[in-house]
Amino acid sequence: MAINRIKPLTFKHLKPTEKEQLIPDGGNLYVRVRPIKQGGSISFRFFYRFEGKQKWLTLKANDLPAARAERNACTQMLKEGIDPNLEAKLKIERAKQQQLEERDALTKLAARVTVRDLFVRWRDTDLLKRKDVKEIIRMFEKDVLPVLGGLFVEDVRKGHITQVTDLLKQRDAVHSARNILKLTRQMFRFAVDRDIIEFDPTASLSVVRLTTAPTERDRTLSEVEIRALARQIPDAGLLKSTECAVWIALSTMCRIGELSKAHRGVAIFAKACFGSPNPSKRQKSRDR
Q1: Range of the domain at 271
Q2: How far apart are CA 48 and CA 123, in angstroms?
């Protein structure tokens, strides 16, 4: 059977009548012209047989060349054992599913949190009451956020964390690396607790292996340092009470908290000792 039987000029001059018209173009393609009372619109139908059943499909084409291209595609589907009607429905469902997936992806993207955003939330939630909050902010702004700040939290891996600690170790700042790793772990655990991420990327990292073992700092002054302090402290502009407090703390080894709450009665100058300012909270007063 011949195909493409309808001439372009003939198609251009098709007119509706009182009855519906189905004009064959060949290859099971028909031009459908609705009757005048139904508006006289023109559409295209493809008739075919699949699994012993006669079927038809309204094509999406708006002109004859496009309709012929759709007809050829449907004919190829039939050769491959595909029902064009079912494929058209599946195509619609696939498009809907793709739209849903794209919408979900956009929603997830909008909800994604960068490391800098996480740090701000952690700072404003957990750090504000810490005495060292300013130092923590300084450390993160200097060493952590320049490396990790722009990353999405869920994309952070161990390698990103070790990049931060390695840079610090290269500067011979191993103690800073240790502190930053511990603080970074706190921040990511904060994120896990709030379901921002599922897993903490620092969980399997060893603080000792990546940085250094904890060491006790030497808190004593040598005789030379004490003499230097005695020479320089008068020029420091301290209150007399503060200057006295420095020497009491150094000579008696009392705690600063105890000293700040002390009164004259706890200092026994004749014995050069210092008692607890609040013995009710301790087993007994102890000479310092």
Answers
A1: 223-281
A2: 68
Can you tell me which residue has the tokens 């700042």?
Answer: 173
Query: By 3-state DSSP, what share of the chain in percent is helix, strand and coil, each rounded to 5?
Result: 55, 10, 35
1 within domain boundaries:
no
* Least confident range of 119-123, 142-146, 212-216: 212-216
User: pTM (2 decimals)?
Assistant: 0.46
Tens-place pLDDT, residues 196-233 = 889 999 999 988 888 776 665 566 778 888 888 889 98
194, 149: one domain: yes
The model's pLDDT over 53-97, given as tens digits with 9 standing for 90+, comes to: 999 999 999 999 999 999 999 999 999 999 999 998 998 899 899
Q: How many domains, the chain?
A: 3
Same structural domain for residues 22 and 70? yes
Whole-angstrom CA distances from 1 to 5, 49, 51, 58, 92 are: 10, 16, 22, 21, 32
Question: Of 45, 41, 44, which is closest to residue 15 (Cα–Cα)?
Answer: 41
Query: What rounded mean pLDDT belongs to the chain?
Result: 85
